[in-house]
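User: I'm curious whether this sequence folds into something compact or stays loose and floppy. Could you predict its structure so I can see for myself?
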Amino acid sequence: MQEPITLDELLEQIRNDPNEERPLTLPEECLIRVGSQVVSGLSFLLLALDTLNGDERIMNKDERRELERILKTLSPDFGKKSEQLNNFQDSVVNPLKAQEEKINALPLLEAYDTFQKGDHIAVDRDLYSHHAIYDGGGNVVEYDDFIVKTATLEDFAKGARIYRVEEGSAYTPEEIMERAYSRMGEQEYDLLFNNCENFATWCRLG
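Assistant: Here's the prediction. I'll summarize afterward.
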């Protein structure tokens, strides 16, 4: 799946469409831009209400990230804010959401045979859970020690059982890995807004 185009790119496509009988007028372009801001504002408000709504979720994780991708297309500013809201919600609002997934955690040897390329996987470590993207060949891409890097599945597990985080995907396994590798070496870790779970979710859902 390709990345969503920006509003400016969409307007440029409309202007250059050979099937258009007349060029896009300035008032029409202004209406499109204003309309996109209205849609963006309402969508962002929906995400904000969902974040403040506690356990009574309005949208599931996949729906929130889909709305985020749309917002990024319509308005970079609202898109960035919606990403921060989603990251905050994943990090703080639902700290116990993975209990069912943890029940199905696998020992290392089983994990090698079960997990697939592009899977979002996690392990429990003392007071927190650690997340990564599995490459399907015995390695992961993870945000660890404040840097995005690769590690073996064994080093990632550190003796713990590994579980798969159940979420949808906006991309193919190959695209998920491309996205993961595109951030190799990044050192912009933030506990609430850009942590290991946020990184793994971004790879799969944008």
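Summary: Residues 99-205 form a domain with the endopeptidase fold (from Nostoc punctiforme) fold (CATH 3.90.1720.10). The longest helix spans residues 26-52.
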